[in-house]
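Tokens for chain A. Residues wanted.
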């Protein structure tokens, strides 16, 4: 007996007709748009981190603190990407995602507060378009991830 899984059809079936989704198509569209925005932000963060690593920073890290800040940013980009990959796997396999999304949202908001209060927008590099896009998408991402937490929590409580 052979079992073949078509991931594309599994994903669309999970989104539109999955048991974890609400009965309203409006909710499905909102979740899809939210997932696309979060995915775009995650892609831009990883791209920007790679570009900064490849091209270097116009202000080189002359102190240990500057070096540690850059390492922390790379670690956070990788860790957030890993968590979002786990989220994508959970969605494809139709597992509950609320707790994972809460963790992602918490890490994202703590990172934002840390950057805002301590690092003073370390991600921004005027020379790179990716830095500008990350700065533009970050507030949208933070609001979207909270919306996704609320929707996932609501869906899982209905079940």
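Reply:
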């Amino acid at each position: 007996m052979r079992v073949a899984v078509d991931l594309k059809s599994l994903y669309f079936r999970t989104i539109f007709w999955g048991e974890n989704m609400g009965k309203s198509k409006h909710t499905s569209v909102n979740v899809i748009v939210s997932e696309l925005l979060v995915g775009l932000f995650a892609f831009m963060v990883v791209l920007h981190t790679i570009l900064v690593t490849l091209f270097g920073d116009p202000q080189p890290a002359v102190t240990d603190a500057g070096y540690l800040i850059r390492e922390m940013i790379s670690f956070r980009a990788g860790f957030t990407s890993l968590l979002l990959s786990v989220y994508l796997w959970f969605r494809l396999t139709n597992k509950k995602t609320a707790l994972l999304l809460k963790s992602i949202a918490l890490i994202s908001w703590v990172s934002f507060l840390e950057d805002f209060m301590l690092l003073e927008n370390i991600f921004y590099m005027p020379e790179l378009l990716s830095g500008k896009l990350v700065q533009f998408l970050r507030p949208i991402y933070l609001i979207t991830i909270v919306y996704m937490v609320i929707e996932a929590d609501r869906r899982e409580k209905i079940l």
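The chain has one domain: 7-158. The two ends are 32 Å apart (CA to CA).
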